[in-house]
Amino acid sequence: MSTELRRRRRKAPKGRGATPHWLGQLPYVLVLCGVGGGLALCALNYFRKGSGLMAAAVLFGALARMVLPPSQVGMLETRKKWLDVVTMTGFAVAIAVVAWVVPD
């Protein structure tokens, strides 16, 4: 193999601040797992605990969207940052209120 071909095949070195691609999707996966776990608890007749877990997961998503840079929030970034945070916080509060208001 020629030296020129080897040079072309080399990849550019990653900088110090470079993170793996999958790490950017981690907050989204955590929110998705929390909501899925909450739905599973609701299916097992633990409505308040399941709804609380879903509200906490969505609130975690809002916090992650507010704190992390755009390269690390993955699919949680859909609109402007302030609109994402307000929407997810509103959904989390609505889920928590429904869980609290519904009788046993």
From TrEMBL:
Record-given protein name: DUF3017 domain-containing protein
InterPro entries: DUF3017
Species annotation: Actinomadura barringtoniae
Domain of life of the source: Bacteria
One Pfam family linked to the record: DUF3017
Alphabetical keyword list: Membrane, Transmembrane, Transmembrane helix
Chain ranges passing through the membrane: 21-47, 53-70, 82-102
